[in-house]
Design a protein that fits this description.
The chain has helices at 22-29, 41-47, 99-116, 134-141, 164-170, 173-184, 195-212, 220-229, 276-290, 307-317, 336-360, and strands at 13-17, 53-60, 63-74, 81-86, 120-124, 145-146, 154-159, 187-192, 237-243, 246-256, 259-267, 295-297, 321-325, 330-332. By secondary structure, it is an alpha+beta fold. It has a seven-stranded mixed beta sheet, with helices on both faces. A seven-stranded mixed beta sheet has the order 8-9-10-11-12-7-13. α2 crosses α8 (220-229) and α7 packs antiparallel against α8 (220-229). 38% of the residues are buried.
């Protein structure tokens, strides 16, 4: 099968693949405003292993200007597979992001994974419908097409640039009332990043999962292992709330670059009336402000399937929040056969996940050979 034609990088640009060390990767990563936990070395090591990971560093005049960590999956017995970049590439080193750096980054990724290795390349960039349309145009011009058949992903981005008084004033009235109730209670807030605190959070998280009877969207034990491997300065924040000496609620977030991402939240069975989650988020906002984090990503909303969580997040952000959609996922593939094989493999994985969810909720299964079934890449 002939290789896809590579496009040369612009003068001054060069890409390096799988030459960077873990310490150097973290040194580079901390210089990007769009750094995130899904692009950390530790996330890859725990989630799928370094044997299935590839690291690309794009340099301009010898300086790193973009990074991308890819998960490599191969279909057994055939030389076909996929390279998946979640929340990458990272290219924003300032508020005035350079469009040309983004172009050269996605070009370098396509050259390496689609043209050189013959893999389907899937990008899930941190781009929203409020971002300039030029980035979607660049992807199209660099021979990426929007991936169809995946659900739109929405989130709320909370602007943390106002003062604390401004953040509180911007909350919805209901949220402010609940926060006042929590502040009148004698609740104790503990902040840290160690394994004991992570373990304590998991205990109440499991209670919540059992109480709500839902399939966990993320394996929290995996994140516990990631936490153990992250450098001290990049560890997730853990905040726990105690009522009468017992942990009643907790929250875990990752704050890298200029953005904090809400990863997990939980309330124990006995802490349902404590309002501890309101106090925790208020304390978290204060801590993020001190760290000079400017954006709080509340990490996913679905008003239809999860209206309670949606209302909590919407009311917290209030007038300081924006309800946004990701522009989507994009792919480049070396040929029709490779694309077809990857789609079939993904359809199989998607069907398995749907059966698992149905069983977990005690619902009867139904035929799953649905041509419109969602693809699952992460």
């Amino acid at each position: 099968m002939p290789k896809e034609i590579m496009r040369p990088l612009a003068p001054g640009y060069a890409s390096e693949v799988d030459t960077v060390t873990e310490p150097d990767w973290y040194e580079h990563l901390q210089k990007f405003e769009d750094a995130n936990i899904y692009q950390t070395w530790s996330y890859a090591e725990v989630s799928w292993g370094l044997d299935h990971t590839s690291h690309l560093v794009l340099k301009k005049d010898g300086h790193a200007v973009a990074l991308a960590q890819a998960r490599i999956l191969k279909i057994p017995f055939v030389n076909i597979g996929i390279a998946y970049v979640r929340w990458g590439p990272m290219w924003r080193r300032s508020a005035a992001a350079d469009e040309d750096v983004f172009r050269q980054a996605v070009r370098a990724l396509r050259n390496e994974f689609t043209c050189e290795r013959g893999l389907v390349l899937r990008l899930f960039p941190v781009l929203f419908d409020a971002d300039p349309i030029c980035y979607s145009t660049i992807l199209k011009e660099e021979r990426f097409s929007a991936l169809r058949g995946v659900s739109d992903k929405r989130t709320i981005l909370m602007d943390l640039s106002p003062s604390l008084d401004g953040l509180r004033e911007g909350m919805m009235p209901h949220w402010k009332r609940e926060l006042k109730v929590a502040e009148r209670k004698q609740l104790q807030v503990i902040e840290g990043d160690n394994d004991d605190q992570f373990g304590a959070f998991i205990e109440i998280y499991k209670e919540m999962v059992s109480r709500k009877k839902f399939v966990e969207p993320n394996d929290i034990n995996k994140f516990r292992l990631i936490q153990a491997r992250l450098p001290k300065e990049l560890k997730m924040k853990i905040m726990l709330c105690k009522s009468d000496g017992e942990i009643c609620s907790g929250v875990i977030c990752s704050a890298l670059g200029n953005t904090a991402i809400y990863l997990f939240g939980a309330t124990s069975n006995s802490g349902m009336k404590s309002r501890g989650s309101y106090l925790l988020h208020w304390k978290l906002l204060q801590a993020l402000k001190q760290q000079q984090i400017t954006v709080y990503d509340l990490n996913g909303i679905n008003p239809v399937r999860n209206p309670g969580t949606y209302k909590f997040k919407r009311d917290l952000a209030g007038s300081n929040g924006r309800d946004l959609r990701f522009v989507g996922r994009f792919e480049s593939y070396p040929g029709a056969l490779a694309n077809l094989c990857v789609k079939i493999a993904e359809r199989t994985k998607s069907n398995y996940s749907r059966v698992r969810e149905l069983w977990a909720n005690g619902l009867p299964t139904r035929p799953l050979l649905d041509p419109k079934a969602r693809t699952v890449s992460d």
